[in-house]
Design brief:
Low-confidence stretches: 208-212
CATH topology of the largest domain: RNA Polymerase Alpha Subunit, Chain A, domain 2
Structural class: alpha+beta
Radius of gyration: 23 Å
Strand content: 35-45%
CATH architecture of the largest domain: Beta Complex
Largest sheet: 6 strands, mixed, barrel
Mean pLDDT: 86
Order of helices and strands: EHEEHEEEEHEEEEEEH
Helix content: 10-25%
Distance between the termini: 69 Å
Strand order of the largest sheet: 1-3-2-6-5-4
CATH superfamily of the largest domain: Ribosomal protein L25, C-terminal domain
CATH class of the largest domain: Mainly Beta
Shape: elongated
Number of helices: 4
Number of domains: 2
Number of strands: 13
Length: 212
C-alpha cells in the first residue's frame, strides 16, 4: 500500500506564520509536520503541486503514504489538512507515523451502492439521507481499506442502517462499536416522501379538530 502514494519532502527549519507564508508564496511549498511513533516530530515542507495532485485522489485520505524526507522514507497517514478560508489552497498538513505491527485509528469513506435500485426510493418514493459519509476504524496498516461499501438496495421507506449493519473487511473494527452497543449510530436512512409526511400531519390535525 505504501508504494501507491509517495511524496518528497525536506526538513523545514524556519518556523512561524511569516516563514510559512514565504514558503507558500515564494517557493511553492506547503508547510507540514510528521509526528507520532518513537521519533520526535519533524517540521517539513512539501512541493505544493505534488500534494495538490495527490489530494485529488480520494484514496489518499485513507491510504498509507510514503514521505521521503531528504531521502529517508517514512510510512504515514494524513491526519489533518488546513485550507485557506476563502481559497482551495492548502496551508498546512499533519501526517501521523504508522507501524506495520501496530493498529492505527483513522477514518475511511463510506461508499453507498445500489441507491438507484433501493426499494424505498424506487418503489416507495423515499428520500435518501446519509447520516455518515465516513467511519472511524481501527486496523493494522496492511488491512486499511480505501473505502467501505454499504449495499442499500434492500432498505425500505422508514428503514435505517446502523454501523452494525456494515460488512467490515477482515481485520477492520469500528471504533464506535468497540465502546459498546449504545454507540451503534445510524448511517443511512430512507425518509418518507414529503407529500406523505404532509398528508399524515393534516390527518392528525383533522382528528384533533373533530374531537373538539
Amino acid at each position: 500500500m505504501s508504494d501507491d502514494f509517495k511524496l518528497n519532502a525536506m526538513v523545514r527549519n524556519d518556523m512561524g506564520k511569516g516563514a510559512s507564508r514565504r514558503l507558500r508564496r515564494e517557493a511553492n511549498l506547503v508547510p507540514a509536520i510528521i509526528y507520532g511513533g518513537k521519533n520526535a516530530p519533524e517540521n517539513i515542507s512539501i512541493v505544493s503541486n505534488e500534494l495538490e495532485h495527490a489530494l485529488q485522489n480520494e484514496a489518499f485520505y485513507s491510504h498509507i503514504i510514503t514521505i521521503s524526507v531528504d531521502g529517508n522514507d517514512q510510512d504515514v497517514i494524513l491526519k489533518d489538512l488546513q485550507r485557506h478560508p476563502s481559497k482551495t489552497v492548502v496551508i498546512h498538513a499533519d501526517f501521523l507515523r504508522v507501524s506495520k505491527t501496530q493498529k492505527l485509528h483513522t477514518k475511511v469513506p463510506l461508499h453507498y451502492i445500489n441507491e438507484d435500485i433501493c426499494v424505498g426510493v424506487k418503489m416507495g418514493g423515499g428520500i435518501i439521507s446519509h447520516n455518515m459519509t465516513e467511519l472511524d476504524i481501527s486496523c493494522l496498516p496492511a488491512d486499511l481499506p480505501e473505502y467501505i461499501e454499504v449495499d442499500v438496495s434492500a432498505v425500505d421507506v422508514g428503514g435505517v442502517l446502523h454501523i452494525s449493519d456494515i460488512a467490515l473487511p477482515s481485520g477492520v473494527e469500528s471504533v464506535e462499536l468497540s465502546h459498546g452497543a449504545e454507540h451503534d449510530q445510524p448511517i443511512f436512512t430512507i425518509n418518507k416522501p414529503k407529500a406523505a409526511v404532509e398528508t399524515t400531519d393534516e390527518e392528525g390535525g383533522n382528528e384533533e379538530t373533530s374531537e373538539e
